[in-house]
Amino acid sequence: LKVWPFGDYKTKTEWCRANAQKVIPKNRMCTLAIPDPVIRELLNTAIRDLKISDQLENINIFRDNLTKNGAKINYHKLMRTGFTWKEFGLESGMEIRNLESRLISACYIIIAIFTGMRFHEIAHLKVGNKLNWETRTIKSNQRSKNIHFVKSMTNKLQSNPTPYLWQTLPIVKEAINALEIGLSWRRKKDNNVYLFAAKNKTSERISQA
Fold first, then answer.
1. Any idea what DSSP says for residue 153?
2. Were 15 and a residue from 6, 163, 182, 203 both cysteine, which residue would form a disulfide, CB within 3.0 to 4.6 Å?
3. How far apart are CA 32 and CA 209, in angstroms?
């Protein structure tokens, strides 16, 4: 069964050009701004989804207990004991990946909005606040103020990845800590050092998988 959702238009580009609210010429280089209401909704949803890390932490503790001494999880055998994923608010274990994806998206949104970091710079974040976070105290007029930074690598203008600091807000540290907790199971097998750990290649970050 093949479906063409673009009606009488011969290409996707034709449909986009005809239905877009604003058409930008190909030779015009610019960065489009996301409308403020959209940003607010994205950010509010992302902040709410940080709580997913608590749910994943409980699931990971449960799975850690099942795999003590190198044992593998036999989910079919586990179900015969009367266990159901409803104990963790899930219909099935397949929903765990969905939770991880939601948490990754939430943390990425928060970090990107409050730092301006590019994708590769965010994906290069390492686990551990000593490697990804720094707070400096600035004194002025007999007052002290803490300035917060995210630590990662950049190669925008450099031929090789170079250490760099991005000034940010404390909410970003909450996002970093939430993702470190939520994706701990992904890092377990191969001692993955990346905050945004890949799903299937546990030694790599999401931009490499």
1. E
2. 6
3. 28
Extract the tokens encoding 167: 């000034």
Tokens (6 digits) for 9: 């238009």
Contacts for 39 with CB less than 8 Å, ≥ 6 apart: 113
* 27-75 confidence digits (pLDDT tens): 766 677 888 999 999 999 999 999 999 999 999 888 888 887 777 777 7
Cα-Cα-Cα-Cα dihedral of 194, 95, 81, 76, to 10°? -80
Q: Counting Cβ atoms within 10 Å, is residue 130 exposed (0-12), middle (13-18) or buried (19+)?
A: exposed
Chain centroid to Cα 104, Å, comes to: 3
Beta strand extents in the chain (DSSP E only): 133-140, 143-154, 162-168
